[in-house]
From TrEMBL:
GO terms for molecular function: DNA-binding transcription factor activity; sequence-specific DNA binding. PANTHER family: ARAC-FAMILY TRANSCRIPTIONAL REGULATOR, TRANSCRIPTIONAL REGULATORY PROTEIN. InterPro entries: Homeodomain-like_sf, HTH_AraC, Tscrpt_reg_AraC-type_HTH. Keywords: DNA-binding, Transcription, Transcription regulation. Residues 198-299 form the HTH araC/xylS-type domain. The keyword Iron does not apply. This is Transcriptional regulator, AraC family.
Amino acid sequence: MQHFKTLSSFLDYLELPRPEHPMLSVLFAAGESFLPCHRKSSPPIINDCYSISLKKIVKGDLNYGRTKYDFTNGALIFVAPRQVLQWDSRVVFEQKGFSVNFHEDFIKGTEIAQQIKKFGFFSYSVNEALHLSPKEEMLIESIAKNIEIEYQNNQDEFSKEIIISQLSTLLKYANRFYERQFLNRKELSNNLLEQFHKQITSYFETGKLQERGIPSIEQLANKMSVSQRYLSDTLKKETGITTTEHLQLYLIDEAKNILLKPNKSISEVAYELGFEYPQYFSRLFKRKEGISPSEYREKYKMN
């Protein structure tokens, strides 16, 4: 897998103009002009840069999870360093908007270096982009324009500080707008929760719990064609509990059924549910139910 360690080498690969600054690139299209189209397809690659791009016109469909959306309005896409990128010619962007790319070293030693780690959307997949309303789009573009102005001017000792400040503002607004998107896409959230439960049920019913142990959230998210972070954030906003807690609740619910079968020991119940250590199963059960597995069995056993 190719690994691009500099911003220049990454932009060269994308067939985009070389940067004015060795660690920062700002490409902006206004009016009727278009940003240069990057390479039409690529095998998996990684790089050491952050990218924030506004795509305004798209040919073809992208899936948002398993739901198709047209990208007539702006879609803001975030990419973090060493996130694997891959695309093919079936999805074609004709970019009209902006693209801000900066090497991770550009923000080292600044406040934003810590802030940026808290923004989950850098871990989302490209098909989980932030869909902007027209007003939101105008606001984000105005901030990007401020960055471009400072980028194009003769840079001085204040330039980096101003650019960092504008980047911080852009990311804070993006975080706010993602919160709005989570709230507005109730149907999608419910669909993800339903799919999540179906994946757990299928995993259980096909005997994979005993064979492979308890699945990771990443495994389940991959089966659903969404990123782990996006799945977790969506379900947390919709239900108030994490994906791990959803999985644990499912296991506890199954445990209750098995515990009422008197021919199985507590350890056997734990192993059947994919727990490597029965003690962990017992602690989890008591934490969730307030009583131990053996106490539950005694309380609800059939007379």
